[in-house]
Design goal:
four-stranded antiparallel β-sheet
Length: 199
């Protein structure tokens, strides 16, 4: 296990695998494109997984000991002018979603949310990691172990670590009536608590 800073974020914060740490050009991306797999080739200039290009290497798995997270957020108009930025989507990925060079799937579809955002808007986020799949450093030094189904001149990176789980956002627009708002918020807070409780 490695303890240095700068490694990729994984499902269990207490465990840091040596995942291709010999590279000095890590990038981290939310999985807007569901086709990506460990070993898939990636074009960072267009933020897309290259289809039918996969390198087969020995993989490692790390199970998660982390509890699910569920939280409820509100935001004002200024904060939410750019929902993808507000939700911590990487700058390059936001640009490619905005330019439609990649399809706005998953959380990326927030860019298409067109309803008014005001004090009655609630964002519910749910995050659960079940396991991390990754390549260790030494697999790249083993001769004749790498098999690629297809090479691609556009590839700039390879996916060396994948966190598997759920990363979801729900947008609710509550009734424009101040009287029931507190009651609704209490129900949402209870829902948030029970969705992460082990009881």
């Amino acid at each position: 296990m490695a303890t240095k800073q700068g490694y990729l974020p994984i499902c269990d914060p207490d465990f840091t695998p040596i995942a291709a740490s010999t590279s000095n050009s890590f990038i981290s991306r939310r999985a807007i494109d569901p086709s990506g797999r460990l070993g898939s080739l990636y074009d960072a200039y267009s933020d897309r997984v290259l289809s039918n290009s996969n390198i087969n290497l020995s993989t490692q798995l790390a199970g998660s000991h982390r509890r699910p997270e569920c939280f409820i957020k509100t935001c004002n108009v200024d904060e939410c002018a750019n929902l993808l930025k507000w939700w911590n989507i990487q700058d390059e990925q936001r640009l490619d979603v905005a330019l439609q060079t990649i399809t706005a799937n998953g959380i990326g579809a927030l860019i298409n949310y067109s309803r008014p955002i005001d004090k009655y808007t609630r964002f519910i986020g749910y995050n659960y990691y079940s396991w991390t799949e990754y390549f260790e450093d030494d697999v790249f030094g083993r001769p004749n172990k790498s098999r690629s189904s297809r090479s691609d001149a556009h590839a700039t990176h390879m996916i060396v670590l994948v966190n598997w789980g759920i990363d979801a956002i729900v947008v609710l627009q509550l009734p424009h009536d101040d009287e029931p708002i507190n009651e609704i918020d209490n129900v949402l807070q209870k829902l948030s608590y029970h969705s992460t409780s082990e009881d």
